[in-house]
Amino acid sequence: MSTLSLEAMRAFLRRSITSTNANKLRGMLAEIELREYLGSLGFAQRISPGGWIVRCDGQNTFGHHTVVMFPELIEPGTPYPIDRELPNPPHGLHTICATFHQSGIRAYFCAPTISALDDALSIEWSCVQLGLPFPQDYGTFPISIDGFRQRPRRYNFLRYSTDASLIPEVAVPDEFTKEHLRVTFQSMYLSELSPIDGIFWGNQFTCPLEISEQPTVTDRQIGKHFRLGLRSFIKVMLLAANSRTLNSLFIVGEVEAVKSSDLFGWWFTTFEHIARFASSATRDSRHGPSTVIRIPKGEFQPLSKAALSGL
Asked: Are residues 174 and 29 in contact, defined by beta-carbon separation less than 8 angstroms?
């Protein structure tokens, strides 16, 4: 049988992820809840699966090659035999990837096969480049993706003992799929990977999404605001630098408190507002420099059907 159980997925995640803190768990749920909300507005087919943006490393070469990768979701109990016909990528993903290609970022869809029952290490990936004007064939992943330095020695990415039982069942397949793809790629190549929560295909723009659930924070300097991690801010800037048609959105599901799961509503702001109104949070000398960016809540607007239709 060429299937994986939910328990086998958790076993892999237990070894591959460093922690299951509250922020990470909240982020997993936020992606799922946003997809459900967009579906209720009629935009279920306008959002891509999550994936990775990957930059090459190395002195004087860092960031000179960038690719994005979107995996086919591995569903528990679903067979992925080694002789299966690999799937056609979703139609909307072709359009999204054409925008990346025009901006100099190669885009790939990745499909798995499984050769042993409940053995995550038996998964092999194939990939096909999208966004080109003519169809491409699947190749072996990740060796068919060039532009990256091969790792000179083996590195153990499966060395942790994290409590994966805390990951909500509904989030396990998506998290496992992305993690397995990441480990497969980084086991071969030296690189910097950043997660892509999803891509929204608008009427005018292709919109990479940064998704978060958080409460409003208030301080005396800028008043009510939401916060964006520094690494996410760098990713937003990277995408904007490559193309004027990649209009990143920062989407926030507002909750009452850090430990609350009750959503007040969804808000969003665009890259332009992030760039114009972002402010670094101050920290005292004992804790070092801040790792978050503040954006005034007044620069966000409700994530409504009308607002999405205007993008």
From this structure: no
**CA torsion sign, 254 to 256 to 261 to 263?**
negative
Q: Is 77 helix (H, G, I), strand (E, B) or coil?
A: coil
Structural domain boundaries enclosing 182: 1-197
Within this chain, do residues 88 and 236 fall inside the same structural domain, yes or no? no
Yes or no: say if 109 and 127 are a contact pair by the CB < 8 Å rule.
yes
Per-residue tens of pLDDT for the chain, all 311 residues: 799 999 999 999 999 999 888 788 888 889 999 999 999 999 998 999 899 999 999 899 998 999 999 999 999 999 999 999 999 998 889 989 999 998 899 999 999 999 999 999 999 999 999 999 999 999 999 999 999 999 999 899 999 999 999 999 999 999 999 999 999 999 999 999 999 999 999 998 889 999 999 999 999 999 999 999 988 998 888 888 776 778 899 999 999 876 666 788 999 999 999 999 999 876 644 545 568 899 999 999 999 999 999 99
Query: What DSSP element (H or E) covers 224?
Result: strand 223-229
265 in the same domain as 143: no
Domain termination residue (choose one: 170, 197, 224):
197
Asked if residue 87 has a cis previous peptide bond (ω within 30° of 0), the answer is no
Number of continuous H segments (helices) and E segments (strands) in the chain:
7, 15
Report d(CA 29, CA 159) in Å as an integer: 25
Instruction: Describe the strand order of the beta sheet including 249-255 as a list of residue ranges.
Output: 199-201, 206-214, 249-255, 263-270, 301-302
The model's pTM is: 0.92
The single residue listed with the structure tokens 């665009």 is 270
Residue for token digits 């569903």?
Answer: 75
Tell me the C-alpha distance between 176 and 184, whole Å: 12
CA 160 to chain centre: 21
Beta bridge partners of 252: 212, 267
Do 229 and 187 touch, CB atoms closer than 8 A? no
